[in-house]
Amino acid sequence: MTVWDESELPFNVHVGENCLLERTRGTFARFRSTRDPGLRLGNDVRVYHQTAFSVEPEGTVEIGDSSLLVGVELMCAERITLGSGVVASYNVTISDCDFHPTDP
């Protein structure tokens, strides 16, 4: 695993083999998952600049092997799963809800 900064990952982030995670201040700024794992990166995953994991306390995100994320916003209330070999880049938001209340 290669991590491009010295800070520790949240306890519930599980990283596969040969991953590269270029973290910035915003990558885990809104990562509040209490699930274990709250985030699972498969083997050979690349996460580059401006990718952000906004995960609610009950949320969990799984990224499949050999995927590439560059500048993606993942907004998760319950569950987001991306398969293997996924490529997502700037100006992409992946969300499992719209985070608006449904009760008027």
What does this structure look like?
This protein has 104 residues and is mainly beta. Helix content is 0%, strand content 36%. It is built from no helices and twelve strands. A five-stranded parallel beta sheet has the order 1-3-5-8-11, with no helix packed on it. Strands 2-4-7-10 form a four-stranded parallel beta sheet, with no helix packed on it. It has a three-stranded parallel beta sheet with strand order 6-9-12, with no helix packed on it. The protein starts with a strand and ends in a 9-residue tail after the last strand. The mean pLDDT is 91.
Portion of residues in beta strands equals 35-45%
Overall SS class: mainly beta
- Total number of helices: 0
Number of strands: 12
Helical percentage: under 10%
Oligomeric grouping of the chains: single chain
In N-to-C order, the SSE pattern is EEEEEEEEEEEE
Main sheet characteristics: 5 strands, parallel
| Spatial order of the strands forming the largest sheet | 1-3-5-8-11
